[in-house]
Amino acid sequence: MHQKRKGLVLDSNGLFLFYSFIITLVLIAVWVVWLWNDKTLRKKYPGAKFLSQDQINEFKECFSLYDKNHKGKIRAADLLAVMRCLGVSPTPAEAQRHLHLHKIERNAELDFSTFLNIMYRQMKQEEPEKEILTALAMIDREKRGLISAAELRAKLTRLGEKLSEEEVDDLLKEAKIGPNGTIKYEEFTRTICLPAVDY
């Protein structure tokens, strides 16, 4: 004797609705997990608050390559290499200054949160630096990396947001003016773009 099975029988419309419902639940679950991870990541790494999720992921991936012992830390000596791998261009002195600012010795280690803060600081420093370099390169007609201090003074006091003579004097104190009255503008730009140290 055959027993008839009792249960739900779905036609093609019913299957479509059922699968749509399942897909919707999965998408909601993925969104909730992403949102939770995003908030958790930002709580865990305070330096992340100014960075996009894509930037954090990229930084984490590169950081992990240098985290040889899988402790969530890199050697301070590797900081310059990791930063340059991520497209910023600190000098060795700038990398050392970042370490000093966070009270990290050259032979010590730094965690990912500290690294995010350092990367953010370096990126903010390099933004105006590029604009200033572009403007100064336009003055450098011979493309030697040098500009005349007198010409720079004239541009700063007559164009754009005009500076006073005193402001230009203060600015030029930061410049290493050569014996022929010229300034290496890349070095000068780096100096004036150093972020203020927070104490």
Automatic annotation (TrEMBL):
As part of the intermicrovillar adhesion complex/IMAC plays a role in epithelial brush border differentiation, controlling microvilli organization and length. Acts as a light chain for MYO7B and is required for efficient targeting of the IMAC to the tips of border brush microvilli. Residues 54-89, 127-162 form the EF-hand domain. It comes from Chrysolophus pictus. This is Calmodulin-like protein 4. InterPro entries: CALM/Myosin/TropC-like (IPR050230), CLN6 (IPR029255), EF-hand-dom_pair (IPR011992), EF_hand_dom (IPR002048). It holds the Pfam family EF-hand_7. GO terms for molecular function: calcium ion binding. Gene3D superfamilies: EF-hand. GO terms for cellular component: microvillus; myosin II complex. The keyword Isomerase does not apply. SUPFAM superfamilies: EF-hand. Interacts with MYO7B; the interaction mediates the association of CALML4 with the IMAC/intermicrovillar adhesion complex. Interacts with MYO7A. The chain crosses the membrane at residues 16-36.
